[in-house]
Amino acid sequence: MLEKTAMLTRRLLLGSTMAVTAAPAIAQPRHPAGRTAAAAHGKPADQALPPPSPGQTPIGPVDTTARWAFIMDYNTGATLLDKNADEEMPPSSMTKLMTIYIVYERLAQGRMKLDEQLPVSEKAWRMGGSKMFVQVGTMVPVEDLIRGIIVDSGNDACIVLAEAISGSEQQFAVLMNETGQKLGLTHSHFMNATGWPDPQHHMSCRDIATLAAHIIHDFPQYYHYDSEKTFKYNNIEQQNRNPLVQRGTADGLKTGHTEAGGYGLCASTKRDGRRVVEVLNGMATNRERSEEGERLMDWAFANFEDVKLFTADAVIEQAPVWLGTAPSVPLVSGRDLEVTMPRNWRHNAKVRISYDSPIRAPVAKGATLGTLTVSGQGVPSMEVKLVAGASVPKLGLPGRAMAVLTHYVTGG
Q1: Helix axes 155-166, 96-108, angle to 10 degrees
Q2: Contact 119, 139 (CB under 8 A)
Q3: Are 316 and 331 in contact (CB under 8 A)?
């Protein structure tokens, strides 16, 4: 097994095989989160979310007063902070992200329209907690109900939409659970559309972040509602309850509060091409939620950067081939490789490639031939498969005989 380290590390650190995308500043509509939409992340709505960086381990942690916390890089899927991120917890009004996702899905499918008028039931009108103040017996446009949920955190708006989509909130909860399974939410169970306290109603921080990322990615045409700072309905004007949106630190998504769950926040923003999604919960006060949310968002941008190590077809190594029609085969990663790194990663990173040498012909393009490993103190370790960038057929019998003879004569 041949291994090469020094030269490859030097090439990588000098930037000959990669381009760095710096992210020093702070404000960005994270993939998930806020910019206006498609233009913000530059990806069509039907393209899959970026998978987590191959083998990349969590980069944090940093101290936080939140009981539960999860921060992820939207571009790479890298985990920056994980504090009880998979523990089931009361999600309070962050639940409404699932309600909004289902509404956006209906809109995108043409099964609902923004100007469609929906009736307000007595149940919706009587619903307690935060409200947009719909009136029983009236009709409300879907677009106003969306703003009523995102800006006002209206429980009444959630009920109106749930009843319109599924006939009842109970049946809508069934749809929420089905949608959660489809999106890969593994620690979530929904009992209602609002996050109203229920011992069987729970989510995890990671699930909330995953859902937020899907909202930003799957429905960029609607994400602009998240950045609206005020909404006036029924002559009552309310401010967006997300303090990071109010301050311009984030472009979405949702806050929440219950006695059992404490104060929670899901927020996202984009700065210099990077988007970060954070979810915090279990804080004691609204002020603490606001300060921790802003501090950790700044920390995520100040301490990390997204690095494009290789493009899909960049030749990382020319591996010698035995008895092939070509003397070597290019080793490539087979896909663009972008990872999230601590900003000082170049000082500590070590890059090693390993493969059996020489590689016996025939070689099929795309065949896995070796691995590239990144490691170092303070650098998240990862291992990436290297594949053949081209096919190398086996020499014919005369050619193989000549190659073998030459090998023994020259000792090469």
Answers
A1: 40
A2: yes
A3: yes
The answer to whether 269 and 275 are in contact (CB under 8 A) is yes
- Full domain range(s) for residue 13: 2-17+314-410
- Indicate whether 261 and 337 sit together in one domain: no
CATH number at residue 288: 3.40.710.10
The pTM for the full model equals 0.78
Report whether 213 contacts 31 (CB < 8 A).
Answer: yes
Spans in the chain with pLDDT lower than 70:
1-61, 377-380, 396-412
Please write the tens of the pLDDT for every residue from 36-71: 333 333 333 334 555 454 444 455 567 899 999 999
Print burial letters for 222-248: b (CB count within 10 Å at least 16), e (below 16). Answer: bbbbbbeeebebeeeebebbbbbbeee
Residue 183 lies in a domain: yes
Phi then psi dihedrals of residue 172, to 5 deg:
-65, -35
Closest CA to 149 of 238, 234, 210, 279: 238
Order of strands, sheet of 2-4, starting from the edge strand that comes earlier in the sequence: 2-4, 350-355, 368-375, 382-388, 328-332, 317-322, 359-360
**Model pLDDT for residues 88-142, shown as the tens digit of each residue:** 999 999 999 999 999 999 999 999 999 999 999 999 999 999 999 999 999 999 9
- Total Cβ atoms within 10 A of residue 272: 15
| Per-residue pLDDT, 232 | 95
What positions carry a catalytic annotation? Answer: 93, 96, 153
Q: What is the structure's pLDDT at 29?
A: 26
Which are the contacts of 274, defined by CB distance < 8 A and separation ≥ 6? Answer: 21, 23, 28, 30, 73, 74, 75, 301, 305, 306
Q: Identify residue 211 by its one-letter amino acid code.
A: L
User: What was the pLDDT predicted at 37?
Assistant: 31
Q: How far is CA 370 from the centre of its chain?
A: 28
